[in-house]
Amino acid sequence: MLMGNGRMGAYEMKLGKGCCHGTFGELVQGRMGDHYFLITLPIPSLRSEANFIPEPAVSGLRVTDCKLKAKRAGEWLLQLFGVNGGGDLEIHSNIPVGKGLASSSADIIAAIRAIADGYSLPISNELISMIAAKVEPTDGVMYDEIVAYDYIHGQLIESLGTLPPFIIVGIDLGGTVNTIEFNKAQKAYSRHDLKQFLKAYDCVKKGFKEKSLAYICQAATMSARINQKILPKPIFHLLENLAQLYQGGIVVAHSGTVAGILLDRKIPNRLEVVSHLSREMLLFSKGLNTNLFLYDSEERILV
What residues does the GHMP kinase N-terminal domain cover (predicted)? Predict the structure, then answer.
């Protein structure tokens, strides 16, 4: 048993495990009033997994240098609960870094969960949010379902549910984006943009209420179009044409390098459509260092 500083009582120690999913950008990201918000697009096949070996005699956490954000979050957790010990933290992830897929948020949350599991600390998604937001703007991926989330302050706005069956055909356009630096910059949203964000939010809520992906696709495209002024995607006009052709929506990483088409999984000739979209995206990006992204929500296939 581990004794804390006397304030928290005793906790059982064990090998701790934690995990967290990534995202494909965001369905919507913008501002409502004075608050920045996003609506998540969780991808369970993108995952960060953490293992933690608690060591009460050690001060602080030992972790590889590339996972320093997760280390900071873990140390905040231990400090919050008055735990004097530390331990060894190991994180494995299949989420590419700097692309807008929530790689660092997933690492942070997986680490918090693993450390809490190792020291038997009682945590909630609200507590995880608070800690994660101390490290950097966070993506709301501590929630399995789709949520509207204040990513600056780490606060849940509301839970929306799960999407109807869908497919994403996307592409990574290359390069990386530093999320912390990106979020320091003021976003030059116009009054029209702010009205569009409210409209997009309402469209998403209507889509969930009516179980209609069409409304959600409409909202995602509105948000992606506004984001062209902030972090333009050179493939946007092609995506716009393809989305109209197949009644889909444009989804982008608003602070990353990926973009794609969100489609209803029930679309006729699904495999042919996916093949056509993939060919068009690859033709556009010929000569660039790009990667395709294919996801099927029913089969949980990630390529």
Answer: 72-137
